[in-house]
Design brief:
492 residues
Length: 492
């Protein structure tokens, strides 16, 4: 009870710090989508110069200590917020590979001593807790004198203790063995692999690079789990036959990009070879990505909150639901020519841009220029138009389904929650696009005339992401991480 009382006391402190930061975002000017999903694309511009003349010259807000304080405070408010009980038929069953037994057991009781034997039990789900922990660690390392430092250290110390991470290791070893007892064998459906595993590696790389002794202790505690997940992730990529090309968090290129952040930071040559070999095998022959299909139609999935073109029942934006329909982009002639599939969760990234950003780190510059010329249409073309514009800020939303897919929640609170969820999704999509665009710009030769356009497009997307980012609960478990990933690439 003492622990719970202390956590309740801390929440007002975090809210106050957010207010002190003075960065609560203004309401976005209300406007509705100007065209439907079937509206024709704009005509081609004559050249890049005409495109640049048409694009607004947007300045991204400075990433200063005040903004860092704001981004760092948001995820801290969810690290000790219990993950919700599973819902729907069959919830809590299915074995360790589904996450059953990680935090909630089949009787819907908490795992005994969860705050001592689990590290990532807060926020909405496991990978969001890991990502939020990464935000806290990164802000602490970059701004060690901020007013968040003591609270951040307390949170990280409580979640990254030796017994906490040992409990994580025990759970994941059991989850893998339940699928196949031979560690290197195929363990399809392993809980949180690949996306969550890649985020854990991102966290370990951050802790490992931090100079202070307390962060080094956390890094040492996490190291065995990171080493095991790096090996497991390498095996997963090596055996992957088709990547997931959806716009959800399950997107394979996104997980590979996070894994490469880790390999670059810690020098893990084995995992880097596994990622780059798999990326070349899976993506090198791709051509003519269907950027025209990535126009955003702002909706809250008619029943359940998936947005974009595949509204339907499903998890919210910060839930990496398992995608069962990976798209091979073969809807038209040539591998990679079709429209990216949408499935396995809300659309929170650009499939085309995420793949292009990954290959920027896999191919040498000369090979990359040739590849991206085949893969993406000219930036001034009508086919690329959906990615030259910021997403339209939502002003209303259909009613979301009730719990477990029940009757729609027609209350004012339900409509407000659905709108907040959609706004958070679009903010995440904007930051993901901005990050990918920055990576592409930095991979091209400095003399390439497209570099200026890519930087301008990235700024447009990031500025819209910050406009949509709020202090409400819809996105605090994952949006700060997406914003900080963008800022990290921007500062390279």
């Amino acid at each position: 009870m003492m622990i719970l009382r202390r956590r309740r006391f801390r929440r007002p402190i975090i809210a106050a710090l957010v207010a002190i930061a003075g960065l609560t975002q203004p309401a976005v000017a209300q406007r509705s989508a100007s065209r439907g999903d079937t509206a024709p694309l704009r005509a081609d511009y004559r050249d890049l110069d005409e495109l640049l003349r048409q694009l607004p010259n947007v300045t991204v807000p400075a990433f200063d200590q005040a903004r860092a304080l704001w981004l760092g405070a948001l995820p801290l408010s969810c690290l000790d917020r219990l993950q919700p009980k599973p819902g729907g038929r069959g919830a809590g069953r299915g074995g360790p590979n589904t996450g059953a037994g990680y935090f909630w057991v089949a009787t819907y009781d908490l795992v005994s001593d969860h705050d001592r034997l689990r590290a990532f039990w807060g926020c909405n789900d496991w990978h969001s807790a890991v990502a939020s922990t990464w935000v806290a660690a990164r802000i602490l390392e970059r701004y060690p004198t901020s007013s968040l430092r003591e609270l951040t250290r307390e949170k990280l110390n409580a979640h990254l203790g030796k017994s906490n991470v040992a409990g994580e290791i025990e759970f994941f070893h059991a989850a893998a063995a339940a699928i196949n007892p031979i560690p290197s064998a195929n363990q399809t459906g392993l809980f949180e692999r690949p996306y969550g595993f890649a985020w854990l590696l991102e966290l370990h790389a951050e802790l490992r690079a931090a100079p202070d002794t307390q962060a080094q202790r956390w890094a040492a505690n996490v190291a065995p789990l990171a080493s095991w997940m790096a090996d497991s992730l390498g095996d997963y990529f090596a055996k992957l036959v088709e990547p997931v090309r959806s716009g959800a968090q399950t997107n394979t290129a996104q997980s590979m990009t996070l894994a490469l952040d880790y390999t670059d930071a810690v020098g893990d040559g084995k995992l880097r070879r596994a990622v780059t070999t798999a990326a070349r095998k899976l993506y090198s022959a791709d051509t003519t990505c269907a950027t025209e299909s990535e126009r955003v139609v702002s909706v809250v999935g008619g029943r359940g909150g998936r947005g974009g073109r595949a509204a339907g029942r499903g998890p919210g934006p910060d839930s990496a639901g398992r995608s069962t329909v990976p798209n091979d982009l073969t809807a038209t002639s040539g591998r990679g020519a079709g429209a990216p599939a949408v499935g396995g969760g809300a659309v929170v990234l650009s499939p085309c841009l995420s793949e292009a950003a990954l290959m920027a780190r896999v191919l040498d510059q000369r090979a990359y220029v040739a590849w991206i010329d085949r893969f993406l249409p000219p930036l001034q073309s009508g086919r690329f138009a959906p990615l030259t514009e910021p997403v339209v800020a939502p002003t209303s939303a259909p009613f979301a389904a009730g719990r477990a897919g029940g009757a729609p929640d027609t209350s004012a609170a339900g409509a407000a929650a659905a709108l907040a969820t959609e706004r958070a999704r679009l903010a995440g999509l904007s930051f993901a696009r901005a990050q990918s665009m920055e990576r592409i710009a930095r991979a091209l030769p400095a003399s390439d005339p497209r570099v200026a356009a890519w930087h301008r497009l990235s700024a447009i997307q990031a500025a819209r992401g910050y406009e949509l980012l709020r202090d409400d609960s819809a996105g605090i478990s994952w949006l700060p991480a997406q914003a900080l990933l963008y800022e990290t690439v921007r500062m390279l």
